[in-house]
């Protein structure tokens, strides 16, 4: 089985949304609603993309993806490649697909002169934690991530 990593095209929309739904199910979250699905595609493939997608494909089937964008480090005075999602369909895990996607992200970060890469992982996702540990990544114990949701409250 040959796995290829490519940049996503708008024609990959159906596959991308299917995989995002799979990730939502895996993480026990609600998938994007119809409006969010439209924004996901517009924000990736518009004139000024807000984020970028890599796809893992084999035999014409999309089996994984990575969403990334750039932030900025004031102390390094360089870009940071922020990995929002990396997901591989369950039947294609343990084939090195995640490593291929991650290696491509590292190449992109180096090409763009990024000072580092960052991402979050759910504390219960032991498979992902083992994967990142094997890559040599380090958990940042001194930082606590906070989130302020700006969505309208459903109950107000």
Structure overview:
There is one protein chain. The protein is an alpha+beta fold. About 35% of the residues lie in helices and about 25% in strands. The chain is globular and about 40 Å long.
Biggest sheet features: 5 strands, mixed
Cα separation of the termini: 51 Å
**Regions with pLDDT < 50 over 5+ consecutive residues?**
none
* CATH fold field value: Aminopeptidase
Q: What order do the strands of the largest sheet run in, or round the barrel if closed?
A: 1-2-3-4-5
CATH superfamily: Gcn5-related N-acetyltransferase (GNAT)
Observed structural traits:
33% helix, 5 strands, alpha+beta, Aminopeptidase, 4 helices, five-stranded mixed beta sheet, 156 residues
Short structural summary:
This protein has 156 residues and is of the alpha+beta class.
Topology (elements, then pairings):
Layout: E1 4-7, H1 13-26, H2 34-45, E2 52-58, E3 61-73, E4 78-88, H3 97-111, E5 116-119, H4 126-135
Parallel strand pairs: 4-5
Antiparallel strand pairs: 1-2, 2-3, 3-4
């Amino acid at each position: 089985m040959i796995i290829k990593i490519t940049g996503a095209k708008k024609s990959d929309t159906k596959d991308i949304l299917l995989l995002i739904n799979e990730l939502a199910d895996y993480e026990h979250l609600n998938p994007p609603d119809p409006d969010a699905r439209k924004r996901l595609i517009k924000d990736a493939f518009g004139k000024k993309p807000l984020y970028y997608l890599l796809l893992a494909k084999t035999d014409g089937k999309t089996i994984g993806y990575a969403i990334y964008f750039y932030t900025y480090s004031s102390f390094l005075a360089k870009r940071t490649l922020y990995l929002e999602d990396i997901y591989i369909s369950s039947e294609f895990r343990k084939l090195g697909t995640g490593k291929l996607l991650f290696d491509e992200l590292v190449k992109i970060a180096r090409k763009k002169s990024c000072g580092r890469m960052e991402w979050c992982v759910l504390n219960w996702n032991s498979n992902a934690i083992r994967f990142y540990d094997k890559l040599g990544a380090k958990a940042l114990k001194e930082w606590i991530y906070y989130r302020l949701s700006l969505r309208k409250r459903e109950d107000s």
